[in-house]
Structures are given as C-alpha cells and as structure tokens.
Write a structure and sequence with these properties.
alpha/beta; two-stranded antiparallel ribbon; 7 helices; 36% helix; 25% strand
C-alpha cells in the first residue's frame, strides 16, 4: 500500500492539471523546474517521518523532491508548458541536471523584494534632505539584485541565515549554460528550487499535553529567465502538525500550500522582452 500511494498522487495531480483551463497565453511559454539538490535538504523530523512511512532517509528525501516537483508542475504546466529535469526520462536529462548542479553556487542573500523595500525606504529618506531643485536621477530598470548576477558579486556583507528578508540564492559559474539548456529544451524561464527545510516550531504548540507542535516547510527558490535576468526569488512556507508523519500524507495535504498562488510570480511578457 505504501508503494501504491505515490502513483495515486501522481494520477490525481495529473488529472487536476488536465482539467484546468489556459487562462493567459501571453505569459512565458516553456518553464523548466530544477529540483533542489539532495545536499540542500534539511529536516529535523526525519526520524519520526521514517518510522511512520517505513522508509529510510534517502527515500524520504527522494519522495519529497518528486512530490514538490509534481506539485509545482500541476500549478504551472497548463499556462507555462513546464519541463522537469527530475521526471524527464530522456538520455540527456540526468546528465544535464548534474551539470547544472555543478554549475551552481548557493549562499544566503537578501530577497529582491527586501532589496526593493530597502531602496524605497532610502529614497524616501533622501527626499527629506535633498535639494528640491536638483534633477532626479533616473532609476535603473534592473533591480539591485541583478547587479553581479553573472559578474562580480554585490558589494554587501553576506547576511546571516536567520536575518530578516533573506533566502538561499542560486548563482552560476558559467552564464551560458542557461541559454544552452533553453535552446535544447525549448523553454524560456527556470524555476530553481534551491533548498528544502522542515523545521519544528516548538514555540508554536498545538497540543501541549500531547507534545504536538507546528512544523514549517520552507522552500527557497529563484525564478530566472534564460538570458540570466532574475525575475524573483524568496521563500515559500506552509505549516503542518508534528502529529502528521506519513510522507505521502505530507505531500498530498500540504505541498499545495506551497505551490498555490505561485503562478502569479511568473510575470507576463512586456514589449521590451
């Protein structure tokens, strides 16, 4: 029965995707989902999940990678024509995925949204002290996060993992690989799932007597166009109780909370694209 459930999950999710209507044909066509590397899996709950699921740690990690990949595909494929390197069975897909991992680097950074908020706050502060007759400097079209994406890194101290407004960000050693993959697979934008975390929140108790706490799932991601432009980046979160430990129940019941609403983060084309 344990082995049948993942197949049922795949069938249900596929049926759900087929039944959805295409709502907007002006968005990017061709989106590649890049699953998080096995080394970027962090969980403080594997012992309980392993016991309840009758699986070893490697199998749990693999199941979460696949479940997350399918969940994103369901929300994205009808509009963006998703392509998953994890589920691609072609001869070259596994090699391309491993090469992509070798080409990536991960480090904590401020999210684009946080940087924009800082920039807006700085502009407001400058308005209070600047000369009202001085010509306003034109704002760059590219947000600060774009500077140094494939060149020198931003001249800013590396933030701590628990600092407000941070996420696990992906950068690349070779900027040409994305374009090569885009041409080979016919896609225009990449969704990198950079890190997956399960963290028990002992300060958020559901049932103190039975020691049931909330657990938080965090998925760090980057949305990057084939030409290297970072469209978005951040952390998706959802919670589930520590009494839920079956891996299939977690993927079926709670991954939708991560992926629902993510469609809005893939921007439409603009006249300058």
């Amino acid at each position: 029965m344990k082995h049948i459930l993942p197949l049922l999950l795949l069938a249900v999710l596929t049926h759900r995707a087929v039944g959805q209507e295409n709502q907007n044909d002006s968005l990017y066509s061709g989106l590649m989902i890049v699953p998080f590397p096995p080394t970027m899996y962090l969980s403080d709950s594997d012992r309980e999940i392993a016991e309840a699921s009758e699986m070893n740690y490697d199998a749990i990690r693999s199941r979460f990678r696949l479940g997350l990949d399918i969940s994103f595909a369901v929300r994205l494929q009808e509009q963006y024509g998703d392509h998953s390197l994890l589920r691609d069975t072609s001869d070259r897909a596994e090699g391309d995925l491993q090469q992509l991992y070798r080409n990536t680097r991960y480090s904590y950074a401020f999210t684009p949204a946080h940087l924009r908020a800082l920039e807006e706050a700085e502009e407001e502060e400058q308005k209070k002290i600047k000369n009202p007759f001085k010509k306003k400097k034109e704002k760059s079209e590219e947000p600060e996060i774009e500077q140094g994406l494939f060149g020198s890194e931003e001249q800013r101290a590396m933030p701590a993992a628990d600092e407000e407004g941070t996420y696990m960000k992906v950068t690349f050693r070779d900027s040409t690989e994305l374009q090569e993959l885009a041409e080979a697979y016919g896609i225009e934008v990449f969704l990198f799932l950079n890190q997956f975390e399960i963290d028990t929140r002992f300060d958020d108790c559901i049932d103190f007597q039975n020691k049931i706490y909330n657990r938080e799932i965090r998925v760090h991601y980057d949305l990057i166009r084939a030409d290297g432009k970072r469209l978005d980046g951040g952390v998706l979160t959802t919670t589930f109780p520590s009494s839920v430990n079956d891996v299939n129940q977690i993927t079926r019941g709670y991954f939708g909370g991560l992926t629902d609403g993510f469609v809005s983060k893939v921007p439409a084309r603009t006249p300058t694209d």
